[in-house]
Fold each of these.
Amino acid sequence: MAIILGIESSCDETSASICIDGEIKANIIAGQAVHAKYGGVVPELASRAHQQNIIPTVDQAIAEAKIHKNEIDAVAFTRGPGLLGSLLVGTSFSKSFALALDIPLIEVNHMQAHILAHFIEDPKPQFPFLCLTVSGGHTQIVLVKNYFEMELLGETLDDAAGEAFDKTAKILDLPYPGGPLVDKHANLGNPDAFKLPEPQIPDLNFSFSGLKTAILYLVQAELKKNPNFLTERIDDLCASVQSRIVSILLNKLKKAAKETGVKEIAIAGGVSANSGLRESLIEMGKRYKWNVYIPKFEYCTDNAAMIAIAGYQKFLIKDFVGQDIAPLARMPV
Ligand code: KG4
Ligand code: ZN
């Protein structure tokens, strides 16, 4: 039997998970409300909140999994990419925990873990599969050849898809994190109400900064004509923006599927919680005869279950690290 403790602290979620023989028995996530009033994550405050949350979060995961901490066989933690101050808390905690219990330490790449969240529950994708990983900091199309053998086929040249959602929300005076709110308003609006540009980027790369500027100019121009524009048209605006972000993402995914011939198609990361993206991907999958894999909501946004499951796979091949390990703000997939 193998019991893995997973720790995630790369951004503003402190999370601990227990994985027993590849099955997730607990996945506790402590969010940080402190950032809402600043309109974005404040790194120093995130780091402090992780320090406060980490021990209670781990205690709760251990209690929920109904195990004793002495039964844990290894600690897997997010080494990067992410905010350095936040990563330091999870890394230091994990190193101390491993040292105290004299158990192995496993480093996990956060972006790989988002993808490996697909191995938490059935149905699981077959290798090789394509994964569109869309989060607050990243937008990538990855060819996943095996658990830890991944090839980056395309990525954003500027903003991430999550940032495009969050920055749109900011322009529309919605609080942070705006992605889920844009999604909610979009469900009530007309996606064809406003015409927004689709950038012409070669290859499988993305760009979202032009879209952000187009939204800003559109809102400024409309507000001059009608000061109540935002309140009156927020649903249509959100629906139009969401529809454009989804089409940018899925057109590239379609291109990647065509170029590679791969028909196992997955999405991952916080933006994969978006209802428009989920629905459109299912439709596209039917049209192109893909097998489509969409994570459960709780495994889309940051969580330690994905760290624990990635850690379990590394535990099986004894891929451990020493106490000299340090977190990395940047880390390729
Ligand atoms: O993966 P994640 O939790 O954290 C990072 O590693 O960045 O992703 C967070 C991002 C945020 O930008 C958030 O606004 C976005 O995911 N997000 C959504 C939705 N839920 C979360 N974006 C659009 N629609 C959603 N329903
Ligand atoms: Zn993430």
Amino acid sequence: DNESQACEFDAIVVGAGFGGMYALHKLRGLGMRVRVLEAAPDVGGTWYWNRYPGLRCDAESVEYSYSFDDGLQQDWEWTEKFATQPEILRYAKHVADRFDFRRDINFETRVKSATYDEATKRWCIVTDRDEELTARFFIMATGCLSVASVPKMKGLDSFKGRWYHSSNWPEGGVNFKGLRVGVIGTGSTGIQLIPEVAKDAAHLYVFQRTPNFTVPAQNGPLSPDFKKYVKENYADIRARARQQGLGLHTHGDQSAFGVSAEERQRRFEAAWQQGGPQFMFVFNDQLKNPEANKAAVDFVHGKIRSIVKDPATADTLCPKDYPIGAKRICVDTNYYATFNRENVTLVDLRKSPIEELTEAGLKTSNGDYELDAIVFATGFDAMTGALLKVNIIGRNGLKLADKWSAGPQNLLGITVSGFPNFFMITGPGSPSVFSNVVMSIEQHVDWMVDCLKYMREQGFAAIEASAEAESSWVQHVNDVANNTLLPQANSWYVGANIPGKPRVFMPYVGGVGQFRKKCDEVAENDYSGFALERG
Ligand code: NA7
């Protein structure tokens, strides 16, 4: 009957950000009946929810965009080197209009649970609107940084002022004019919003637990010549990026010690002046060799000390106890210089931890701060948070949350043993957060869709990662990470920012080219490492 048909799909996709939209596009291309479920009222994912002042992407706009449709990349005009959030959201909406995505998306719908039925080899998905939908394939495209983490601080309820988490910002913005504002957190988010809030606030207190490394964006409008060059060479630029480590098109190929000390400084300086995350890849051993890394650390410390006038403040801003890049590098506009402002005070929580929030503000072990507003720029339950927020139940009643109690076991960051016909776009074990994520999204979705096509051609109804292939993938992800300095910081890469979360290095850092090769090999070998079942 019509009613049951209305709830039966070939594929259900959760999330209408860049991942979900592209999955919808490709699955439609297979002629599938697809439904996308999205909690927000519109498309955009992370770019819908995050709208704090100063928010920009830290990958260059001409790269952080879809490559699947040449008409799209030729028509769209990026205005700046690093796009602002409003511009990226406009782009996401443009893509949704252009490909008529919204007719297949249920907005303001949150998925509560998804259960695999072994008899029918289908998933049953329950939403907060008490709908039950079924689908052969269940795809989580819920993003890596989408579940906000507000630390449990004593007294938060008693605080009389307003408080905000950066990723759940009021639609119309916040007017900080004349207010005493506290920002807690100095990750990428804090580093972007602090200079903006400082312009308005009567006084801004920055509560820093761990200083972060940030490199200047050196942002600016894109010249007509550059835009012309990119459009004429898009195919080449994309092809090169797909093979690179990070999925961005420039990379050094020499050791930091393959050049003289003067030349090393010169290249760091050139990268600093050029701006952006490429600073991490001036030399090919910066993330592997502790000495090469230290050379980059020393360079940035020198910059901080030359920009920040007060030597004690400069010293507090210098990260000293982890390698540069082991926490995801930040990209800023005027961050360090903001600490030269009269109305900005840096508070070192390492010396004086927060004890509690009070009616009037915030109390540290070393004194009280009266505040009218507090911004939590305290990050996310990254990579696994959104996946585990849905009660996902696989074969034999196995809950994903239980399976992952000691860390997110997965194969290729896309599939999980025990969970047939379940796919993750940018899951743990994939290079997503260690790449230009839009490029990774396209790769993951393309691989998944090729797999579904293969299943249809061969008459298979279910696919599932084997336990052995999964263990060796997790081992490989760890081996690759342990060959770098990346696991050495208490970052969200290892879940260290969430109390109680198992410490496991989650992203695949072997590079997007290498990852693509591994995925292609699996496909070429008739999905080796997977069990396929007929209907
Ligand atoms: P991050 O990078 O996780 O940064 C969160 C910041 O908040 C970081 O400085 C934390 O210090 C700080 N934090 C977290 N909890 C607390 C408590 N309880 N007290 C004081 N300070 C705290 O999140 P972002 O949103 O900045 O960036 C996430 C990613 O989004 C980023 O890498 C880009 O990819 C985009 P800590 O370092 O844990 O000591």
